[in-house]
Amino acid sequence: MNARHPAPGQPRRWRPTPLVGGAAAVHAGALAALAVAPATWPWAAGGVIASHLALTAAGLWPRSTLLGHNWTTLPEQPGARIAITIDDGPDPDVTPRVLDLLDAHRARATFFCIGERARRHPRIVEAIVARGHAVENHSQRHRHHFSLQGPGALRREIDAAQTTLGEIAGTPPLFFRAPAGLRNPFLEPVLCGFGLQLASWTRRGFDTRTGDAALVARRLLDGVAPRDILLLHDGHAARDANGAPVVLAALDTVLRVAAERGLHTVTLREAIV
Ligand SMILES: [Zn+2]
């Protein structure tokens, strides 16, 4: 994470990262080379293809900062703090039980909600906020081709969720997390326009795929340290052999062990410095 980047909430000027700026320069250089020396086309094409591969690889790596600012840990601050982030809800079955669990441990969490789901279950979103947690933007529809879209479609998708979640939660989101963490170079300029900060994670439990809560908890706790951002899911939650959403037992273990190790939970917006 870059400690110098501006706090979320205010539109900010977009500045291309070295990778994005370099890719743009390669494209401009290739066009110029073709204009003056058409025979150089294999080199020009090769450069353009290589820059696209580099941008695509950066977008497929959720924790990379090569395409723009990205919280992969909490900002540096005194105190042993971690953030629990919970994606893909609200879910009428799972989210209320997650909220009870958080209350029982006196823990705070950040919920990256899907706009359409929030519209279907507004009372649950209100409960998230009323119980001291934060609601952030995880896109309106959580489409799997999110990262294949151009700037206009990205803006509409994020704007719709920003409006939906802001209306229901009473305060607009400050953070955005891309569906599946996948991005493209158009995302960062769009986020700058909304004053949204991209947030990924430090560790994830793969709790949408793993039906073993102990394994999910181990993945999250193995090496857990102050400033870590942990990723779990209340929507799309995998179920254990008894049909229980694994997030419940996994989160219970994570919160118990975190407390034993003196780690205090905060929401992402509480961690803004
Ligand atoms: Zn998601």
Automatic annotation (TrEMBL):
Keywords: Membrane, Plasmid, Transmembrane, Transmembrane helix. CDD domains: CE4_NodB_like_6s_7s. It holds the Pfam family Polysacc_deac_1. Residues 80-266 form the NodB homology domain. The keyword Ribosomal protein does not apply. One of its GO terms (biological process) is carbohydrate metabolic process. It comes from the Bacteria. GO terms for molecular function: hydrolase activity, acting on carbon-nitrogen (but not peptide) bonds. The keyword Cell membrane does not apply. The chain crosses the membrane at residues 20-37. This is Polysaccharide deacetylase. It comes from Caballeronia insecticola. The lineage of its organism: Bacteria, Pseudomonadati, Pseudomonadota, Betaproteobacteria, Burkholderiales.
